[in-house]
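Researcher: Quick test of sequence recovery. Tokens follow.
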């Protein structure tokens, strides 16, 4: 009787421990053990890789490119690079992005729509480095490979990140600003969006680089949501607050265009040193005119081109692309802009 009671008590204790997740279940198939909470059918997410849906060399691919926006010249150049690669690898390129570069939910919906359509691969430039992780995981959970171009995600589960090293490129901007100001003066910074990988990295790089010049003081940082109108407003406000400003770092195309307009309107073009990113036609005109003193110019054509090539490589089963591809950046000034090397970078599609 006592033995029967002891067995019942031990059985009850073991059942309670199993319910609390303190007992390991044996994985008979693999010969090992799996914690009960992580057993098949448990609550923990699966980390098993989903095989990529491959296609033969003669089959046409459908590849989607989802930029942060569609209006700025930078994104149109990324598109041109993607289309050039598409012709080489027999791929149709779908191009769709949010109406504004701060429209994170809109971009997430576009990515999820492409997942539902069952495209062969997706290249995306993330509007928000954290919010886009889930849609990317959803795509790859369907066997659709993803590469990230220009603006990254954290953590990054994609197959390849193809972009400028924005921290290093922004350090170049800081060095150029230091040179232009002779190592002393007051500087303002126009960033575009907190939480965007590109914006955060350029902010980091510039602030790190400018520390080499103890005589330069960064008096204010502003964010413009990549909107020219907001860049105009922010530039006007910071000039009112700091009329003795010596330099302005504008970290992307709309910021440069907005800042240059204000400087010209106030008769400060050429006096306040303006260093920026990208090479839209309006920025190049500002460089020629002297309102813009230097541009850190990326290679958006290569971003689109390498993105499509990498996806085609994956879908064709032809190997794995490099996890990180640095597309490079150059400092272009009025002094060097007419050299053959810089002309090719400024006009990747040729002059109009």
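Model:
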């Amino acid at each position: 009787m006592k033995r029967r009671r002891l067995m019942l008590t031990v059985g009850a204790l073991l059942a309670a421990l199993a319910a609390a997740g303190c007992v390991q279940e044996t994985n008979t198939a693999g010969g090992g053990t799996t914690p009960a909470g992580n057993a098949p059918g448990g609550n923990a997410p699966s980390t098993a890789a989903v095989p990529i849906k491959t296609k033969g060399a003669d089959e046409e691919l459908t590849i989607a490119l989802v930029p942060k926006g569609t209006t700025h010249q930078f994104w149109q150049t990324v598109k041109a690079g993607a289309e050039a690669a598409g012709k080489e690898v027999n791929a149709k390129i779908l191009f769709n992005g949010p109406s504004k570069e701060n429209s994170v939910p809109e971009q997430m919906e576009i990515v999820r729509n492409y997942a539902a359509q069952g495209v062969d691969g997706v290249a995306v430039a993330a509007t928000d480095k954290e919010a886009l992780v889930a849609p990317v995981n959803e795509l790859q959970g369907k066997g659709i490979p993803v590469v990230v171009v220009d603006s990254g995600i954290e953590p990054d589960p994609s197959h390849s990140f193809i972009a400028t090293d924005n921290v290093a490129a922004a350090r170049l901007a800081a060095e150029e600003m230091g040179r232009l100001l002779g190592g002393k003066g007051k500087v303002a910074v126009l960033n575009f969006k907190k939480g965007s990988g590109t914006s955060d990295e350029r902010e980091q790089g510039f602030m790190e680089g400018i520390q080499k010049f103890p005589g330069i003081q960064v008096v204010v940082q502003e964010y413009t949501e990549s909107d020219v109108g907001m860049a105009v407003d922010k530039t006007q406000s910071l000039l009112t607050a700091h009329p003795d400003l010596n330099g302005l770092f504008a970290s992307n195309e709309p910021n440069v265009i907005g800042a240059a307009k204000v400087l010209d309107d106030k008769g400060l073009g050429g006096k306040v040193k303006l260093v920026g990113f990208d090479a839209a036609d309006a920025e190049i005109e500002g460089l020629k005119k002297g309102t813009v003193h230097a541009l850190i110019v990326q290679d958006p054509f290569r971003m689109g081109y390498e993105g499509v090539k990498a996806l085609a490589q994956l879908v064709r089963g032809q190997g794995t692309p490099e996890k990180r591809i640095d597309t490079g950046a150059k400092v272009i000034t009025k002094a060097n802009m007419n050299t053959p090397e810089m002309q090719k970078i400024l006009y990747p599609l040729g002059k109009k």
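The first strand starts at residue 24 and ends at 27.
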